[in-house]
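User: Let's play a game. I give you a shape written as tokens, and you guess the letters that built it. Ready? Here's round one.
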């Protein structure tokens, strides 16, 4: 397959001209971090930049005030670039979403400039609330990706990896109900709900020893009683569950529920287990696209390799999109491994010279990949063929 090197060079030149403009956007977002569903200034800034370059902008997409879709062109092939811009409460842009937004913006502007009025369309999709709320899920359910052929984004990290081992995730609320009593004056009439919750933690500790790779359970106590002079009649825990696939996650939910029910039986308490929200699906990488992006990233000066075996970096609502459309979510390093995201050091890296260089290289590599998809129908077909094979194999 021949690639249009001239188009790639033009994309690189365009991103180079956009350098100061993109960094100004990344910096403004970094200086004014906004949490999930409150990214009003970020959405206004990004839509203004896109509209200024001729994109048709729709705001309030899928009923979310801070979501948007900016479009240029029409029909297929259709490529969507995802922009994230929510911050981590208390830590600012400690996931580097200011760089995600700036890279996606740069790729959209450069690809539009290079492609002109060629066949197909390009979307820049503003996806709020990745940290908490799942904005991409709402966008997918609203049909935003129904006529899209590829979804592209890149995320800063502490590794440069060609794809992201992101697991399925859900949170459970486990509530034990007992009977209050005086702990010394009338202990035989009490049913200690907190003891039942603690017993559940013990059972989960044994469960962890046999969990497969990629599965994990992390719990906290959110209610353990009000006073030491009363046997607690209610205790509550929250448990974050992760697994390699949605099916594996469902099995893990069953295992955790069994542990809770066993603890209730052992202590005489009653228990309720409730899923909180929809959770996130696992991420399904499309190697046809991620390998092409990785080649472009190398041409832009950053060499990404496969993920380290056995290392799972978390979960994201990009997973729900990747089960509908061929997608990529590579990582590009901006900080040392000892300073992962959701730390103050990583937030500082998101406004550093290294962060700037990673953002610019990512923008150029994304633009190149979008251009390839728009100008080579066979690449689109190969991506969809691989996607459907993954579906048939149950991944």
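Assistant: Ready! My guess for every position:
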């Amino acid at each position: 397959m021949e690639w249009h090197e001239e188009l790639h060079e033009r994309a690189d030149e365009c991103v180079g001209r956009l350098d100061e403009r993109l960094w100004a956007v990344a910096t403004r977002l970094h200086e004014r971090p906004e949490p999930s569903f409150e990214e009003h200034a970020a959405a206004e800034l990004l839509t203004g930049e896109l509209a200024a370059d001729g994109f048709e902008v729709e705001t309030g997409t899928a009923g979310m005030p801070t979501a948007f879709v900016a479009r240029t062109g029409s029909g297929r092939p259709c490529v969507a670039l995802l922009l994230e811009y929510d911050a981590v409460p208390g830590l600012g842009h400690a996931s580097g979403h200011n760089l995600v937004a700036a890279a996606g913006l740069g790729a959209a502007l450069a690809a539009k400039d290079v492609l002109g009025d060629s066949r197909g369309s390009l979307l820049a999709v503003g996806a709020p609330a990745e940290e908490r709320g799942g904005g991409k899920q709402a966008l997918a359910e609203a049909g935003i990706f129904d006529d899209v052929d590829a979804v592209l984004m890149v995320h800063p990290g502490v590794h440069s990896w060609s794809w992201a081992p992101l697991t399925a995730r859900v949170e459970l609320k486990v509530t034990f109900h007992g009977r209050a009593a005086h702990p010394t004056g009338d202990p035989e009439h009490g049913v200690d709900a907190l003891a039942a919750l603690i017993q559940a933690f013990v059972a989960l500790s044994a469960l962890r020893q046999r969990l497969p790779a990629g599965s994990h359970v992390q719990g906290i106590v959110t209610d353990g009683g009000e006073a030491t002079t009363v046997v607690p009649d209610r205790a509550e825990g929250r448990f974050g569950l992760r697994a390699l696939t949605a099916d594996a996650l469902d099995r893990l939910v069953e295992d955790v529920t069994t542990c809770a029910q066993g603890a209730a039986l052992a202590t005489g308490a009653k228990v309720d287990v409730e899923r909180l929200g929809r959770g996130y699906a696992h991420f399904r990488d499309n190697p046809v696209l991620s390998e092409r992006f990785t080649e472009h990233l190398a041409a832009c000066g950053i060499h990404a390799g496969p993920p380290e075996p056995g290392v799972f970096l978390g979960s994201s609502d990009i997973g729900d999109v990747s089960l509908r459309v061929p997608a990529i979510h590579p990582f590009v390093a901006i900080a040392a491994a000892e300073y992962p995201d959701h730390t103050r050091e990583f937030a500082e890296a998101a406004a550093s010279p290294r962060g700037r260089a990673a953002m610019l290289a990512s923008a150029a590599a994304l633009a190149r990949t979008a251009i390839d998809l728009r100008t080579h129908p066979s690449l689109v077909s190969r991506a969809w063929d691989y996607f459907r094979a993954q579906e048939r194999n149950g991944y």
